[in-house]
Write a structure and sequence with these properties.
Strand content: under 5%
Number of strands: 0
Helix content: 55-70%
Largest sheet: none
Number of helices: 9
Radius of gyration: 17 Å
Structural class: mainly alpha
Order of helices and strands: HHHHHHHHH
Length: about 150
């Protein structure tokens, strides 16, 4: 029985999708809210590798993430991140674009998308959202030129 990772083209194909996804997060203005969520984390370089490691095991390949961190509990990984419905939907839309840009299609990819949707929606939470406060402070500082913007904006 082949694993989903093999059916989508193996680690090289997965790496290409993850890289494309984070390239979009870094460059597409529509995906800026996703980039912004990483401002208070480990940063995108760390996240690119962690995402690849996680998805490799998620798709039935080598569980690099579990080997590095001892678990693959998605809710625990994201417990500190304020994730709202709009964030989850934007993540899914951006990942779908990355899949399409990499020519990923077929039944396995459709199943992958459906599973990612369930996972993304499971992560929606009520963690206090620092973005609203950062936006308020930023607006106040723009009204008073000469002050530095706050972290996270």
């Amino acid at each position: 029985m082949s694993v989903a990772l093999t059916r989508i083209g193996g680690e090289a194909a997965l790496r290409a999708v993850v890289e494309r996804f984070y390239d979009l997060v870094e460059t597409d203005p529509a995906a800026h809210p996703l980039h912004r969520l990483h401002f208070r984390g480990h940063g995108l370089d760390h996240t690119r590798q962690a995402q690849f490691d996680y998805l490799c095991g998620f798709l039935g390949g080598r569980a690099y993430y579990r080997e590095r961190f001892g678990h693959m509990n998605l809710r625990e990984i994201h417990a500190h991140v304020p994730i709202r419905d709009a964030d989850a939907m934007l993540w899914l839309e951006t990942f779908d674009t990355a899949l399409a840009d990499c020519g990923m299609e077929g039944d396995t990819v459709d199943t992958f998308r459906a599973t990612l949707r369930r996972a993304a929606l499971l992560l929606v939470n009520d963690v206090p959202d620092w973005r609203a406060e950062a936006d308020r402070i930023s607006a106040e500082r723009r009204a008073c030129p000469g002050t530095a913007p706050p972290d996270g904006t």
